[in-house]
Amino acid sequence: MGAGSVTLIEDEGKRLLVDVGHFGNRDQLRTALSKAGLEPREVDYVVLTHIHWDHCLNVDMFTSSEILTRDKEFNLGTLSGIRDVSTDSFKELLKRMRLKLISSDEFALTKNVRTIDTFGHAPGHVSLTVTEPSGLVVVSGDALPNLRALKRGLPDFVFHDETMARTSIGRIYSTSRDTWKLMRWT
Ligand SMILES: [Zn+2]
Question: pLDDT digits over 63-77, tens only?
């Protein structure tokens, strides 16, 4: 349980990390960045799809980066998905960093990368669309974590709103429909 992915995107000379994992992934994350020839300070943007603990606890490694998450997630989200005692101190940590709260749908980070609202799993969950030469790819976090969720139309875990979570899967699928067609298993 609690195995959020970390995705590195490079566009227009900028390096973006989507989610940063948790303590248990810390060494693995350092090693993976190093293999990509990067120090944490060379990451320009860290985008937190949402603030569940398994996606965000290594954020303190990125003191030079701009940290982005949706305003709604910052205001309503929690580390564990339910009210807990650690979220407030984590939000204080974020406030001391270069935090930018995203306040609109389809927020453009670079020419080919933008966030889209995919609420439901968490109150302010965002996904990222990446326009590749081969088509549009969505880094979907926990809004669409696996193929089972696509087939079921709902992620295994919904901490905020089931209807929104279903709508978000539909949005991710329709946004990247042409790319899905390239995959044999759909
Ligand atoms: Zn989550």
Answer: 999 999 999 999 999
